[in-house]
From TrEMBL:
Pfam families named in the record: F420_oxidored
Organism: Bifidobacterium santillanense
Protein's UniProt keywords contain Oxidoreductase: yes
Protein's name in the database: NADPH-dependent F420 reductase
Residues annotated as domain Pyrroline-5-carboxylate reductase catalytic N-terminal: 4-90
UniProt-listed PANTHER family: DUDULIN-RELATED, REDUCTASE
Entry coiled-coil feature ranges: none
Domain of life: Bacteria
Keyword Disulfide bond: no
Lineage start: Bacteria, Bacillati, Actinomycetota, Actinomycetes, Bifidobacteriales
Length: 206
């Protein structure tokens, strides 16, 4: 049985926690608000950020990219060597441009640079939370796009997503996160300008 720790009990954290529980994994959710963490998904265990120890072999950062630094400060030692999933769309919401640290090509590559012993996987950033929570996008299983330089880590993430009834496609190496993050940003722009619904977005047909 796999074990998955999710940082963040917001829209994506709760949706991914639901997927992880449905996959049959042991699921821990860590949030600054322990009650919110405990309520993220039926069957998940909640814990308080800064106090909890990471129990999962797969760690999902379901936080704003700007909050990653706090995880790195408090938990870098604990997540070293684990599979770490970056869900972020690092957007400046005043301009809708990508907002990355100086020199970074993508949030995922930046994170990998900060966690050299971990196996970073980009996932979940090209699907709105509602289509993750329901597992359905426009009548078909929601398709999660993945990228990573570590095939085993990518397969572990793929396995829990597909065990919950969603589908995946493999975008390739972690550097493809640059495209996935542009795709995620465009999807948000279309949502904010009300050209596409938050319950839909891009649909990958397999
Ligand atoms: N929403 C979507 O449809 C969607 C789609 C694709 C990707 N994403 C990405 O998913 C990530 C989360 O988005 P979301 O929509 O789930 O956001 P959200 O609903 O606002 O939830 C954010 C979560 O992050 C926590 N958090 C915020 N700042 C923190 C900090 N400084 N330290 C620790 N925890 C902090 C919040 O904790 P508190 O409860 O304590 O405030 C909350 O649990 C973002 O990177 C976003 O780009 C979102």
């Amino acid at each position: 049985m796999s074990s998955i720790t999710i940082f963040g009990a917001g829209n994506i954290g709760s949706a991914v926690a639901g997927i992880a529980v449905k996959s049959g994994a042991y699921v821990q959710v860590i949030d600054r608000n322990a009650d919110k963490a405990a309520a993220a998904a039926d069957g998940a265990t909640g814990a308080k950020f800064g106090e909890a120890s990471v129990s999962g072999d797969i760690v999902v950062l379901a936080l704003p990219f700007s909050a990653y630094e706090e995880v790195l400060v408090s938990y870098a030692d604990q997540i070293a060597g684990k599979t770490v999933v970056d869900v972020s769309n690092p957007i400046d919401f005043t301009t809708f441009d990508l907002a990355l640290p100086e020199g970074a090509r993508s949030a995922a590559e930046y994170l990998a640079g900060k966690l050299p012993q971990s196996k970073v996987v980009k996932a979940f950033n090209t699907t709105f939370a509602s289509t993750l929570a329901t597992g359905v996008n426009d009548g078909a299983p929601t398709v999660v796009q993945l990228a990573s330089d570590d095939e085993d880590a990518k397969n572990d993430v793929k396995a829990f997503i597909e065990a919950a009834g969603l589908r995946t496609v493999d975008a390739g190496a972690l550097k493809r996160a640059r495209y996935l993050e542009g795709y995620g940003a465009l999807q948000i722009i279309l949502g904010v300008t009300e050209q596409t619904p938050w319950t839909g977005g891009f649909k990958v047909v397999r």
